[in-house]
């Protein structure tokens, strides 16, 4: 009788003993390494040439003169005076016209004889002039300058004299001589010499220093609130051919970047301006960014949905007292379920997180009891080994990620619109966010996304 009583007591104690399987060992797989996507950011640059061209204008001579003397025939001396240069910007070049005027003095000797004094005219010389003691004769001069950028980040220009018109011809009637062609030849040779001076002034524009400052600023991390820091990591530069409009030159800059987002601030070694690459017209950019869904926040959602839930399992009932994510086991999530009711204890389950891109939801695939939990249940409470528990957890462990993606899109778009310094402003916008893959870290499910948009720099 005493033996039967002891067996009965042991049976009661066994029935009341809580289910407490050993907690699974946690392991985190190494974060997958992916090379950042290198994309080309189209950056329009506007440089105000008005100031530079004023310097060109002021540096050029306002007047010049010349002469040609000979004993026999016609000798002459001239003076040319120009007005301020009128610059006109065309699509592919700078064109400018100059109003000028000249005066001319001439003398004529039909025949010379050579003596010990070096020669003299056999008859008195005949003297004449144009624009002397009367209004100077008018001329119109036109130049065009094509501009490019060489591999050393300098403007390369080529200036050519395109127009030279004498508006007031100068004909000397006293000896019936039209000096227009000779004056044109002499003055034009002087104007051609100005081409090199114009090119020298344009090529003195210090574009390299401007771009070196921008390049340095682009290597500074951009804070992204709770997401960490965004690094553009500029890699290359390429320029389009310059375009001219009003008093500005516009250049499309292709900036090759390999942007990443890091939760921790990294040590960045500044690199100098690279060699210019061949320009190819592109638009927009792509950015890989990891968005973290912490286990604490997901556990809070699960607990809110399942805490207090009563599950009827083959006539026995349990009440969920706690449900949360306890960690990871390689590529699986570990769930910890605490309960009371017909039985009290803890269950451990595993599931593989997956993304339904069409529905934009995060869900658990291959949800099952942990091996240690299975072993304990088979020995003491097979009725807890139920698909009902699995189905309820799977149903509630489905999370909408659209709000999270939209929040990250807005936040990053906002941070892309900042002033890098007082002279350089960055303007950007994220158009779309697409999920690439997911992986597990120690404290969160990480959703790796692909962001597409536009990014521009405006330089004063």
Feature tags:
single chain; 460 residues; alpha+beta; Bactericidal permeability-increasing protein, domain 1; 2 domains; 7-stranded mixed beta sheet; 7-stranded antiparallel beta sheet; 29 strands; 23% helix; disordered N terminus
The assembly state of the depicted protein chains is single chain
Approximate strand percentage = over 45%
Number of strands: 29
Counting structural domains, the number is 2
- Number of helices, counting only DSSP H or I runs of 4 residues or more: 8
What does this entry show, briefly?
With about 450 residues, this protein is an alpha+beta fold. The chain has helices at about 1-15, 50-60, 180-205, 205-220, 295-305, 370-380, 385-395, 400-415, and strands spanning about 25-30, 40-50, 65-70, 75-80, 85-90, 95-110, 110-115, 120, 125-130, 135-150, 155-165, 170, 175-180, 220-225, 230, 235-240, 245, 250-255, 260, 285-295, 310-315, 315-330, 330-340, 345-355, 360-370, 400, 420, 425-440, 445-460.
Produce the secondary structure layout.
Blueprint: H1 2-16, E1 27-28, E2 39-48, H2 50-59, E3 63-68, E4 73-82, E5 86-89, E6 94-109, E7 112-113, E8 120-121, E9 126-130, E10 137-149, E11 155-166, E12 171-172, E13 177-178, H3 180-203, H4 207-218, E14 222-223, E15 229-231, E16 234-239, E17 243-245, E18 248-257, E19 260-262, E20 285-294, H5 295-306, E21 310-313, E22 316-330, E23 332-341, E24 345-356, E25 361-369, H6 371-380, H7 387-396, E26 399-400, H8 402-415, E27 418-419, E28 424-440, E29 444-459
Parallel strand pairs: 1-22
Antiparallel strand pairs: 2-18, 3-4, 4-6, 5-6, 6-9, 6-10, 7-8, 10-11, 12-13, 14-15, 15-19, 16-18, 17-18, 20-29, 21-22, 22-23, 23-24, 24-25, 25-26, 27-28, 28-29
Helix pairs in contact: 2-3
